[in-house]
Amino acid sequence: EKDGYEYFMLKEIAEQPRAIADTLRGRFDTSGGIILDEVRMSDQDFRDVDKVFIVACGSSYHAGMVAKYAIEHWVRLPCEVELASEFRYRDPVLDRSTLVIVISQSGETMDTLMALRHARNQKARVLAISNTVGATIPRESDAVLYTRAGIEVAVASTKAFLTQLAACYLVGLHLAAVRGIKYADEVAAVVAELAGTPEKISQVLEAMEPVRELARRMGTADRALFIGRHVGFPVAMEGALKLKELAYMHAEGFAAGELKHGPISLIEAGTPVVVVVPSPRGRSLLHDKVVSNIQEVKARGAAVIAIAEEGDDVVAPHVDHVVFTPRVPTLLAPLLTAVPLQVFACELAAAKGLDIDQPRNLAKSVTVE
Ligand code: M6R
């Protein structure tokens, strides 16, 4: 039940620290690998992998986009991410040494199931990340890692999405461990940082009142743009998807670098632009680039809302509003930066009096292609 929350979505947003902690708990073995829930493939099979595809729909696809950055960086394997509905129709090149990671909260999404069957027909190995024990997708896969979000009732994915991110990180670390870690120190540090993320998500949740306030004031806007670079790009896409599905607002998420290749012509005085700003530490080049993107949209009159890392004092003077999230390694940042965007969409839809848990035209599990 809703435990006193007005909507399931609010309850599920609040459950995220617990959901991440549960998903990480007890997963590491003594050799630094992770413990998968069902494994019908050997360590040797994992070592033989020479290419990774990640296939999913909707929010699960956005989690996959984040995973690509982590897997390529930690494991140094080529990794492609594809929408399940497109995957099999373009005749992807697959064989025994291809690992296909399918991500599905429900485990029953027909597009994803069909992609999985296509991959297995081509002899690829399939690893499923799912939130539903015994669903069709995990049953038909060679290996399974379950997220432990618990039942998600609201149609809009929140805690399931966050736990998919955590599971993707675990898979990346597992591949790195099984195959011989290239950046051993970094991976060990990431494991420790991952363990600290539930506490940091709680901190983000505690500071959400200004975001709610902002969302209530923005109820009259008819569109919004979301931009980011690196892992901020999929977070921008996820923020836009939340706003579309909940607030029935036209929202678009794209890579900030693409602005000047077209979308900047959409900016008028007052157009809301949400910017997911990378950490200024370590990858300062990326940070500089995003700051110049902010200046470009500001110069054309945009109302800029930035999600930035605590201690980032460069961004604030350039934007209308800034929401700070705690420090975390760049690749893990989506676990924190996605949260204000969930709250924002939920509150904006609530201000419009819309059905938060059951938006029009949508189903929780899409079992038709
Ligand atoms: O159950 P799945 O993870 O396979 O579902 C995939 C999408 O249908 C789902 O993530 C959808 O995009 C959500 N409603 C987004 O909030």
Automatic annotation (TrEMBL):
EC category name: transferase
Active site per database record: K364
Domain of life according to the entry: Bacteria
GO molecular function: carbohydrate derivative binding; glutamine-fructose-6-phosphate transaminase (isomerizing) activity
Entry's Gene Ontology BP terms: carbohydrate metabolic process; fructose 6-phosphate metabolic process; protein N-linked glycosylation; UDP-N-acetylglucosamine metabolic process
Domain SIS: 42-181, 214-359
Function: Catalyzes the first step in hexosamine metabolism, converting fructose-6P into glucosamine-6P using glutamine as a nitrogen source.
Protein name: Glutamine--fructose-6-phosphate aminotransferase [isomerizing]
Source organism of the structure: Stackebrandtia endophytica
Lineage of origin: Bacteria, Bacillati, Actinomycetota, Actinomycetes, Glycomycetales
Gene: glmS
Whole-protein coverage range: 248 to 616 of 616
